[in-house]
Amino acid sequence: MSMFREFLGQAWMKNDKNSRAPHILLMTKRFNDVSRLVASEILRRPSLSARVAAIEKWAAVADISRCLHNFNGVLQICSAFTNSSVFRLKKTWDKVSKTMVGLDHYEMHSTDVILPIAHVIREIRHFQQTPYKIELIRKVANYLLDTSLLMDDEELYNTSLEIEPRTSRLSTSALGQLSLSSKS
């Protein structure tokens, strides 16, 4: 069964999806692996400035991917940015250059992701005819395929909490005012 038939027949949603949709399952796994790689690379950075630099680097990669009409690459990186472990890093995102990322992190919702998908679907036939003329760089390919660099979801979130612990909804000053008003 071709990937086209797998897609149109929604074979990935069937009970026997492993045999009916192997290509879609592999593409989905690859998408998730790259997204997890980006999130892992951001969360592995020990300092705020290094995390900001990592986000800005990946935003630049997303922009290059967009220029190459590699919308899947753009979405993989956007998916990493919206991963809860990365998205919650308010102190980090406050330092990221909004012009570098090309969008306001806090206004990026699923509708923004749906729009690029719709664009991809409209133009997919056109870009299928456009061959990539990219030289294979073995070091880059090996890096992108190295699954030992990936953190699982639990490790991503625990690392995120170590970097920026949860903050109370009530600030210390608000708690102080609350206790003063209760004494009067």
UniProtKB/TrEMBL annotation:
GO terms for molecular function: guanyl-nucleotide exchange factor activity. It comes from the Eukaryota. One of its GO terms (cellular component) is plasma membrane. Keywords: Guanine-nucleotide releasing factor. Residues 1-184 form the Ras-GEF domain. GO terms for biological process: Ras protein signal transduction. Transmembrane segments: none annotated. The keyword Protein biosynthesis does not apply. Gene3D superfamilies: Ras guanine-nucleotide exchange factors catalytic domain. The keyword Mitochondrion does not apply. PANTHER family: GUANINE NUCLEOTIDE EXCHANGE FACTOR, RASGEF DOMAIN-CONTAINING PROTEIN. This is Ras-specific guanine nucleotide-releasing factor 2-like. It comes from Asbolus verrucosus (Desert ironclad beetle).
